[in-house]
């Protein structure tokens, strides 16, 4: 009898002390959960790709066991970063082209193209990243030298913002472009009665519609290359701002095969055929792919003077920018999307473009709630129009402010610049901002985004007191904008964006504390590990 009692007591002790099984436990960390109370935790357990519980090291180890237990040794952990506006596929495709970012003269552009072709010997050459605002001669280039060096090889070099291209004569010939060529929403740039080779906004299609199509193999390689780059910077979700049907189908197939682990919020390019296709199919949602929004363009970019302004450009008399799509098409498209469950995300840079989009949104969404429609960039906004962002999400890119600050006021003047890159003002009106980079227009690093948002300085620390510093975000706001608020802008706040029980175990370990490190050190922070579904990538 005594032996039986001892056995039962022992059995009870074993039963009570048995721990729950987890797949991964992280301990002794400095965890910014980004939950509603912005609590800091020490540890968490992960099972089946989701956070099981978050708490102290003592409580997690007392309750759970796992084959993998990782001691973070005090390192900082934050939710996986979400880039709310980027061009993920474009980043990958750029790895297959001439990199022109950072060129300080047109001569350097030509040298990079020549070196690239000497190495690759291609039949068609593409490049991206030039910006005449970074050159001593801050004017659009012409194609004379490229035509002389490459008379038979078509060359297209895309400006950093994607809103202008430089083509040599062989490329212009693909589209039969002449000084008589015209297109709505675009400009064929002519100087002294001759083609310069520069095509702005919709005029790009004159050549690009005749350019060889990208192969499936090229797209697959591009997606995998982009994933490697983005995981290295702690990105676990990307909002790709403008994808076609074929690209989305390839993404879906790669995700289903397990090759592409990046989560993608797909903004479908807003052309009619895409609208017809996806409005008929309806929203498509998996754990890794969310197809529920359309990307639409109203104007071009400020750097190429394609942004649509309410008054003339300050540095170009009687020039107001370009309407990439007609206002009639904007309204018709918005009505179609409003009558579905899809979200509309519209590119608007200039104050006129923002005004028109805000007015259109208000009209077509009347009586509809929680639609979370977004304005992408919201770059120059009339002061009286900020009030209209009360139910429209501003999706902004902080590094645009620190890249453009050298010349933006020249474009719009001292008064209009007060409503430009006004991230804090936009936050105060809506209550949230979704932050992105717009890569490859800007560099991929989310740490540059965070730094530009809070310091409003370039990487050299200029200007000393910050550019229009009154519109800086706090570190807490910046982190939310790159995690939970970005997730909210994607209708995904219940599954990602914070480290909480039941959410995807997407998180990153950093080598420095992003919330406390010296401001100047923020751009230099490194990602130690990136986890998706609790698995290191």
Could you describe the 3D structure shown?
There is one protein chain. Strands 8, 15, 16, 17, 18, 19, 20, 21 and 22 form a 9-stranded mixed beta sheet that branches. A 6-stranded mixed beta sheet has the order 3-2-7-23-24-25, with no helix packed on it. Helix 3 (88-94) packs across helix 8 (216-232), helix 8 packs across helix 9 (245-257) and helix 11 packs parallel to helix 12. Strand 24 (527-532) and strand 25 form a beta hairpin. It has a domain at 88-208: Diaminopimelate Epimerase, Chain A, domain 1. The chain has 18 helices and 25 strands. It is α/β, with parallel strands linked by helices and 537 residues long. It is globular and about 85 Å long. Helices cover 32% and strands 24% of the residues.
Instruction: Assign the CATH class of the domain at 88-208.
Output: Alpha Beta
For the largest beta-sheet, the strand count, sense and barrel status come to: 9 strands, mixed
Helix content: 25-40%
> Measured on Cα atoms, how large is the radius of gyration?
25 Å
Strands, count? 25
What overall form do the CA principal axes indicate?
globular
> Per CATH, which architecture of the domain at 88-208?
Roll
Structural class: alpha/beta
Strand content: 15-25%
Overall mean confidence score, pLDDT: 95
CATH topology type of the domain at 88-208: Diaminopimelate Epimerase, Chain A, domain 1
The total of helices stands at 18
Distance linking N and C termini: 56 Å
SSE inventory with pairings:
Layout: H1 2-17, E1 20-27, E2 30-32, E3 40-41, E4 43-47, E5 50-55, H2 57-63, E6 64-71, E7 76-79, E8 81-86, H3 88-94, E9 98-99, H4 106-120, E10 125-130, H5 144-149, E11 155-159, E12 164-167, H6 169-174, E13 186-191, E14 194-201, H7 205-208, H8 216-232, E15 235-243, H9 245-257, E16 263-269, H10 272-281, E17 284-285, E18 289-297, H11 327-338, E19 343-348, H12 351-364, E20 374-377, E21 393-396, H13 398-404, H14 408-416, H15 423-430, E22 434-435, H16 446-455, H17 475-481, H18 484-489, E23 507-510, E24 527-532, E25 535-536
Parallel strand pairs: 1-6, 2-7, 8-15, 9-10, 10-11, 15-16, 16-18, 18-19, 19-20, 20-21, 21-22
Antiparallel strand pairs: 1-4, 2-3, 4-5, 7-23, 11-12, 12-14, 13-14, 17-18, 23-24, 24-25
């Amino acid at each position: 009898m005594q032996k039986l009692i001892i056995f039962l007591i022992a059995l009870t002790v074993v039963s009570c002390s048995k721990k729950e099984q987890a797949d991964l436990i992280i301990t002794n960390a400095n965890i910014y959960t980004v939950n509603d109370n912005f609590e800091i935790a020490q540890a968490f357990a992960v099972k089946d790709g989701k956070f099981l519980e978050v708490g102290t090291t003592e409580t997690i180890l007392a309750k759970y066991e796992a084959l993998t237990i990782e001691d973070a040794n005090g390192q900082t952990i934050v939710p996986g970063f979400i880039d709310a506006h980027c061009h993920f596929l474009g980043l990958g495709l750029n790895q297959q082209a001439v990199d022109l970012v950072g060129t300080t003269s047109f001569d350097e552009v030509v040298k990079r193209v020549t070196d690239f072709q000497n190495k690759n010997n291609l039949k068609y050459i593409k490049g991206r990243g030039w910006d005449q605002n970074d050159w001593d001669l801050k004017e659009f280039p012409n194609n004379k030298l490229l035509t002389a060096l490459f008379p038979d090889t078509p060359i297209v070099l895309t400006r950093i913002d994607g809103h202008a291209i430089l083509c040599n004569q062989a490329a212009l010939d693909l589209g039969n472009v002449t000084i008589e060529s015209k297109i709505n929403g675009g400009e064929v740039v002519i100087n002294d009665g001759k083609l310069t080779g520069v095509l702005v906004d919709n005029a790009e299609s004159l050549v690009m519609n005749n350019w060889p199509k990208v192969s499936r193999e090229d797209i697959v390689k591009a997606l995998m290359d982009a994933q490697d780059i983005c995981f290295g910077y702690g990105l676990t979700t990307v909002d790709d701002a403008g994808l076609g049907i074929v690209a989305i189908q390839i993404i879906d197939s790669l995700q289903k095969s397990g090759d592409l682990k990046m989560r993608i919020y797909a903004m479908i390019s807003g052309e009619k055929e895409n609208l017809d296709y996806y409005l008929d199919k309806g929203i498509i949602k998996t754990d890794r792919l969310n197809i529920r929004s359309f990307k639409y363009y109203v104007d071009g970019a400020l750097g190429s003077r394609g942004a649509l302004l309410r008054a003339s450009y300050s540095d170009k008399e009687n020039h107001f920018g370009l309407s990439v799509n007609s206002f009639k098409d904007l309204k018709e498209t918005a009505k179609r999307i409003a009558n579905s469950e899809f979200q509309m995300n519209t590119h608007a840079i200039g104050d006129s473009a923002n005004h028109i989009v805000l007015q259109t949104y208000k009209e077509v969404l009347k009586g509809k709630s929680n639609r979370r429609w977004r304005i992408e960039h919201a770059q120059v906004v009339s002061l009286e129009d900020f009030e209209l962002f009360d139910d429209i999400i501003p999706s902004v890119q902080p590094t645009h402010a620190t890249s453009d600050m050298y010349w933006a006021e020249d474009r719009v003047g001292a008064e209009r610049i007060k409503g430009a890159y006004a991230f804090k003002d936009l936050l105060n009106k809506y209550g949230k901002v979704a932050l992105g980079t717009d890569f490859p227009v800007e560099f991929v690093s989310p740490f540059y985004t965070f730094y530009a948002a809070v310091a409003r300085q370039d990487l050299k620390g200029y200007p000393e007191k910050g550019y229009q510093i009154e519109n800086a975000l706090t570190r807490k706001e910046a982190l939310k904008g790159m995690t939970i608020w970005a997730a909210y802008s994607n209708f995904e706040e219940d599954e990602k964006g914070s480290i909480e029980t039941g959410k995807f175990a997407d998180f990153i370990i950093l080598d420095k504390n992003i919330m406390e490190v010296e401001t100047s050190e923020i751009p230099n922070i490194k990602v130690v590990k990136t986890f998706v579904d609790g698995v290191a990538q």
